[in-house]
């Protein structure tokens, strides 16, 4: 089943790497439950095939970082980037992009969340294994209110600008 507008996102465990210890979060990967993290919040989510890949690094994530203030001004509490990578890779990638404090770089290393929402993309023939399809969505209190999915190899519908225009 593929998630759609009006659906509640399923619970899954994702991981986030912290470079510095904070209250309630230790240094290194920390485990979070999607359902708890979304409760009472408006969250913009972008997902992509992989950290450090060309389109993801040059366009997708940087667009959300650049428009952080505009998302906040429209009532978005958090921006999440989800990828089927491990938390260490997502943490270092986020640091290299300047995402800290703007975009939460969440690792779905086993594709648990990605599979539950029907967005897995099989790239085993290209040596990348199972990944996430590229998309963006707006979620209010766990319910999908906007959902923009890309065809494989395309980057048009899931941009920060498009999601901002839908809020």
From TrEMBL:
The stretch of residues making up the signal peptide is none
The answer to whether keyword Transit peptide applies is no
Q: What keywords are annotated for this sequence in UniProt?
A: Antioxidant, Oxidoreductase, Peroxidase, Redox-active center
- Catalytic reaction annotation: a hydroperoxide + 2 glutathione = an alcohol + glutathione disulfide + H2O
Q: Name one Pfam family in it.
A: Redoxin
Superkingdom per UniProt: Bacteria
Q: Is this entry keyworded Repeat?
A: no
Known EC number: 1.11.1.27
Which part of the chain is the Thioredoxin domain?
Answer: 3-167
Task: Spell out the PROSITE patterns in the cross-references.
Answer: THIOREDOXIN_2
Please give the PANTHER family that the UniProt record associates with this protein: PEROXIREDOXIN, PEROXIREDOXIN-5, MITOCHONDRIAL
Would you identify the family this protein belongs to, as annotated?
Answer: Belongs to the peroxiredoxin family. Prx5 subfamily.
Record's function text:
Thiol-specific peroxidase that catalyzes the reduction of hydrogen peroxide and organic hydroperoxides to water and alcohols, respectively. Plays a role in cell protection against oxidative stress by detoxifying peroxides.
Recorded protein name is Glutathione-dependent peroxiredoxin
Q: Give the organism, scientific name.
A: Limnobacter profundi
